[in-house]
Specification:
This protein has one domain (2-90): 2-Layer Sandwich (Alpha-Beta Plaits). Helices cover 43% and strands 29% of the residues. It contains four helices and four strands, in the order αβαββαβα. The chain starts with a helix and ends with a helix. Pfam families: DrrA1-3_C. Residues 1-88 form the Daunorubicin resistance ATP-binding protein DrrA1/2-like C-terminal domain.
Length: 91
């Protein structure tokens, strides 16, 4: 089903928009044990984690402990189009 396809192939991503003064925190994020990958585009930090349900609160807590000024925090899942493109490119 579509739901199974989304669940099986979607990557767990959190997108956090921060202020310029908090850019050093990105290095902290890269070293967290539950973080798989970090992509930075401007002030947006895209973080791939093991489990959205468990790790979103852990990442948010870490940001608060480091007094990061969070502009935006969102959970992001791949769309069907992104999954299709990823699967086609892999073959």
């Amino acid at each position: 089903t579509i739901t199974e396809l989304l669940h099986r192939n979607s990557e767990n991503k959190l997108i956090i928009e921060i202020t310029a003064k908090d850019r050093e925190w990105i290095d902290v994020v890269k070293n967290l044990h539950y973080v798989k990958d970090v992509e930075v585009v401007g002030l947006k930090v895209k973080v791939k984690v093991d489990s959205i349900e468990i790790n979103k609160n852990m990442l948010l807590q870490n940001a608060l402990e480091h007094k990061v000024d969070i502009v935006k925090f969102e959970v992001n899942s791949d769309t069907l189009e992104e999954i299709f493109l990823k699967l086609v490119v892999q073959k």
